[in-house]
Amino acid sequence: MNVLLIGSGGREHAIARTLTKSARLSRLYAAPGNPGMAEVAELVRLDAADHDAIARFCAEKNIELVVVGPEQPLVEGLADSLRARGVAVFGPSKAAARLEGSKGFVKDLCRANAIPTADYERFDDETKALAYLREKGAPIVVKADGLAAGKGVVVAETLAEAETAVRAMFSGAFGKSGAEVVIEEKLEGEEASFFVLCDGTRALPFASAQDHKRAGDGDTGPNTGGMGAYSPAPCFTPETEARVMREIVAPTLRAMREMGAPFQGVLFVGLMLTSRGPQLIEFNVRFGDPETQVMLPRLEDDLLELMFACATGALPERAIRFSPKAALTVVLAAQGYPGTPLTGAEINGLARAGEIAGVTVTHAGTRREGDKLLAAGGRVLNVTALGDSVREAQALAYRGVDAIDWPEGFCRRDIGWRAIEREA
Ligand code: AMP
Ligand code: GLY
Prior knowledge:
Layout: E1 2-7, H1 10-19, E2 28-32, E3 42-43, H2 51-60, E4 63-68, H3 72-75, H4 78-84, E5 88-90, H5 98-101, H6 103-112, E6 120-123, H7 126-136, E7 140-144, E8 153-156, H8 159-170, E9 181-185, E10 190-199, E11 203-211, E12 214-216, E13 220-223, E14 228-231, H9 238-258, E15 264-274, E16 277-284, H10 291-295, H11 303-312, E17 326-334, E18 346-347, H12 350-354, E19 359-363, E20 366-369, E21 372-375, E22 379-387, H13 390-403, E23 409-410, H14 417-423
Parallel strand pairs: 1-2, 1-4, 2-3, 4-5
Antiparallel strand pairs: 6-9, 7-8, 7-9, 10-11, 10-15, 11-14, 12-13, 14-17, 15-16, 17-22, 17-23, 18-21, 19-22, 20-21
Helix pairs in contact: 7-8
The protein binds adenosine monophosphate and glycine.
């Protein structure tokens, strides 16, 4: 089978590497890809926003499956455009991608189907939003309705902070994404991410993971896209999984089907494990980055077959197989991230890191210039390791990190601390 993978980050490099293990893969193309992906796929210049160009490429190269990595093309309807031309797509339609594209849509769906989530109200008017804030008091959470590249959420500890966030959103800080605002109760507990494969009708649990969102050690400093992750999430027990499938995933998928927008692809369930049980924080309609980099090394099934089954309504009636080992990944970021990153510096030592048994280096934001590898983004590399425990995986991953020579980069030194404390 010929496959086209859309995306260019660490998540997509991990997906590409895993797809090449499938006996069913003939040719793998990636658009636009990155230097790591170039080792396992043929890179093509295609703009994810140009649906016609992608459809033409699929016809020309006999593409039987398109795998969409990031959310933006899904929210913009790429899957619909391709399905209309008979191409199978791993990823939801525009209507089903509202599960990530509109926070207000998700909150209303939860309310209508008794899905456990933070209590909330939606506002398209600043005065009413401010009045609601004063009635509820702090702490409280303010969210821009639409996609905001992970920056549209403010967990406000004081009323003043919440008011500032509401004013910023209504004054256009997030463009159209902030024209509507969701204000919700702050949930207390441990966060975990859970991934479910869906084929429009059936849903199969994939894996759990936990990431570290803050830039600094001890989970301090500014929020980022994720500085590291591990899988499985030790707090996510089989009982919790069963409860999340029953109370959150099943009613969501049923509601989507009933409104004529069945969900196909991977549903990323962001959870807070509270004293009242698991509560939904948010859905994403794609794999996580860097969560994918720790789930896929544990997968013992054929990823291509699973993705094709999601795209064609044919998920198997059995559990997906995973290694019981722990995987942990450390993100190497360019100095300045999550602000303006320092790009263009040379990186060496990748081969040395990759030679350590059990260590894999993934490209997230790199660029080749001649035979040099340069930093080209905020999150630049991921160093992933497998171990019999999170502690073992962590030690191995940092051995890999230390083999890489890139003085202009930085990473956290404590990825996995919570899971390691639990193991001890
Ligand atoms: P989201 O983009 O909705 O995932 O929000 C980003 C982050 O904000 C989450 O990963 C949580 O850490 C935090 N967050 C969002 N909503 C809540 C909430 N209701 N209570 C506590 N923390 C939240
Ligand atoms: N690591 C969080 C995300 O992919 O949204």
